[in-house]
Amino acid sequence: MAFAECIRLSKHFGGVRAVNDLSFKVDEGEILGLIGPNGAGKTTVFNLLTGFYRPTSGSMLFRGRELSGLTPPDIVGLGIARTFQNIRLFSNLSVLDNVRSVLYRHARYGFVEALLRSPRVRLCERHVHEKAMEYLEEVGLADRAHDRASHLPYGLQRKLELARALALEPVLLLLDEPAAGMNPEESMNLVELIRDIREKHNLTVILIEHHMDVVMTLSHRIVVMNFGEKLMEGSPEEVQSDVRVIEAYLGEEYAGAYRR
Amino acid sequence: MYIQGVLTVAMINIISTAGLAVFTGFTGLFSLGHAAFMAVGAYTSAILTYFVKAPYLLALAAGVLASCFLSALVGYPTLRTRLRGDYFAIATIGMGEATRVILENLKITQGARGLPGITQYTTLPVAAAAAAVVLLLARNMLASVYGRNAVAVREDAVAAEMSGIHLLRTRMISLVFSAGCAGLAGGLYAHYLAFIQPVMFTMVQSTQITAAVVCGGTGSLTGPALAAFVFTVAPELLRAAQMWRLVIYGLMLVLIMVFRPQGLMGYRDLSWQGVLSLSDRLRKSVAGGKDGKG
User: Which domains does chain B have, with CATH numbers?
Assistant: First the structure.
C-alpha cells in the first residue's frame, strides 16, 4: 500500500481536461516534486487531493483511504495540509492570529462554556497562544507576531503560510510554489527550511515549483505533467536530461538542439 | 420619562446591533432581514404574555428560541456555499418580507392592525441589564473558538476550510446567535412600546441595524454598539431632521465605504489602552503643530 496514490485521476471541466488519467505514487518520507509548464494541471491535482474539486473519474488514496468525496476539513483531519499558489492568509489578522486560527480545532468546549468563558476556555487560550508562538519561532517569524499579516513582505507571507500549515500537524504537506517570487538567496533559505521541517516533523512532501534549482535540490523524485497528463517521472537527473521534458518547457527547437 | 424612553430604545438597539455585529462584522455575511428575527421575537413573546399570561422572562426566552429556529431554517440551505455569502444576503431580503407578510395574515397576530395592549415590562434597568449581558456573551463568544473560526471564514473561506474549519457549521452558529439577539431585542421592544405591527419590522429596520454595524466597524463589538447608541439618540436630538434620517444613514454608509471601509472603529475594540494612546497621539500632534514649521 503506497503512502499516497493517484490512480487514473481525471478532472474535466466540460471539454477542458485539466487532469487526465493521471497515476503516480508517493512514498512515505519522500519529497516528490510535481513540475510542468503553466496550465499543466498541477494545482488542480492539489485541489483534488484536498477536496476542493471532485474527480471526474479515478481515485486518490491516502494511507489506503479513498479521498474523493471527502470535504476539505475531513481531509485536514486525516493529516493533509497545503499552502496556496496565491497566498491565502487571513490578511486583516495578526501573524500570531493566523497561526492561532488553525490551532483552535483542538478546543474541546461547548458553546455554552464559550459564552461563559469557563476556566477550560482560558486554559485553551493559553495553550493555543504558546503553540502558535512555537510554530512562528520555527519559521523565524516570532518577532513579528503582532504585525498585520498583510503588512509582511512577500517572502515572509509565504513563511507564515508554511507556519500555518505546520500548525495543522500534517503527515503529508502539499506545497504550491512556495518559492514563487523569491530571489536565489531566499530560495535556498527556503530549501533549508523545508528540509529542516521535514526532518523535524517526519513529513512527506509534494512540491509544486517552477524554480528548478529548488525542485532539483529538494526532490527525491519528480513527476512531470503536461496538458493534464503525466509526461514522465524519475529522479532529478533523469528528468533534467529527458528530451520530452525539455520539449514541454522550452519547445521543440531546444529539444531538437538537445537531441543532437 | 422621555429621556428614559429614548435610552431604553437605545439599549434595545444595542442588543440587536451586537448580534448583527457578530454575524456581519465578524463572520463577514450581510443580512438585510434581521428585522424579521426581531419580529418573530416580538410577536412570540407578546402573544405569550398577552394571551397566555406567561411570565415575562419565559416569554422573552421563547421569543429568542423562535428566532433561533427561524434562522436555522433559513441558514441551513443558504450558508453552504464556499463563495462569499452574498446568496444569503439575497435570501434574507426574501425571508424578511415573507415574515412580514405572514405576520400580516395570521389571525393570532391580528394582522396589519397590530397587537396592542402589551404589558410594559421593559424598563430602562431591564433593557440596560439585558444589553450588558448580551455584550458580555458576545465578547466571550468572539474570543472563543467559535468567534475565531467565524473570523477565519470571513477572511478567507477557502483557507479556513483548509485549516479544518467547517464552513456551514461556523456560519450557522454565528447566524443563530445573531438571530437570538435580534429576537431578544424584539421581545424587549414589544414590551416597551406596548404595541407592535408587522410594518415596524421591515427592510428599513434591517438596514438601520446593518448601517450601525458597518459604521461602527467590521471586527469590532464596541464600535457598532456605540454607533447603535448614536443612531438612536441623535435623531431625537435632531428632531427637525427626522425625515432626513434615512438619507443621512445612506450618506454615512457611502462616505464610510469610500473613506474608511473598515468602519469607524476598524478591527479594534474600544479599550482603555486605545483611549489613552489616542489622547497621547492627539496631545503630541497638537504640541508638534505648535512649535513645528509653518
Answer: 2-291 (1.10.3470)
Q: Are A130 and A106 in contact (CB under 8 A)?
A: no
Say whether residue A73 is in contact with chain B using an 8 A CB cutoff. Answer: yes
Verify whether the Cβ–Cβ distance B143 to A72 is below 8 Å.
Answer: no
Say how far residue B219 (Cα) sits from the centre of its chain. 14
User: Per-residue pLDDT for B172 more than 60?
Assistant: yes
- For B139-153, write each residue's pLDDT tens digit: 999 999 999 999 999
Residue A101 has its nearest CB partner, among B140, B143, B152, at: B152
CB contact under 8 A, B151 and A105: no
Locate the chain A residue with the closest alpha carbon to B154: A90
Of the candidate ranges A138-142, A184-188, B2-6, B269-273, the one whose mean pLDDT is the lowest:
B269-273
pLDDT tens by residue, B63-72: 999 999 999 9
CB distance B8 to B192 below 8 Å: yes
Task: Determine, for residues A111 and B165 on separate chains, whether the beta-carbon distance falls below 8 Å.
Answer: no
Q: Which residue of A has its CA nearest to B168?
A: A73
Q: Report pTM.
A: 0.86
Q: Which residues are CB-neighbours of B28 under 8 A, at least 6 positions away? A: B84, B85, B150, B153, B154, B155, B218
End-to-end CA distance of chain B: 52
Yes or no, beta carbons of B145 and A107 under 8 Å apart: yes
Quote the ipTM score.
0.87
| Domains parsed from chain A with CATH numbers | 4-79+170-259 (3.40.50.300), 90-152 (no CATH)
Is the pLDDT score of B111 beyond 80? no
* CA distance, residue A260 to nearest chain B CA (Å): 47
Q: How far is CA A106 from CA A111, A113, A123, in A?
A: 14, 15, 12
When scoring B82, B136, B142, B145 by the number of chain A Cβ atoms within 10 A, the one with the most, hence best to mutate, is B145
| Mean pLDDT value across residues B269-274 | 58
Size of interface A-B (CB pairs under 8 A): 85
Determine phi and psi for A146, rounding to 5 degrees.
Answer: -100, 5
β-pairing, A65-66 with A57-62? antiparallel
Per-residue pLDDT tens digits for B13-70 = 999 999 999 999 898 888 899 999 999 999 999 999 988 888 999 999 999 999 999 9
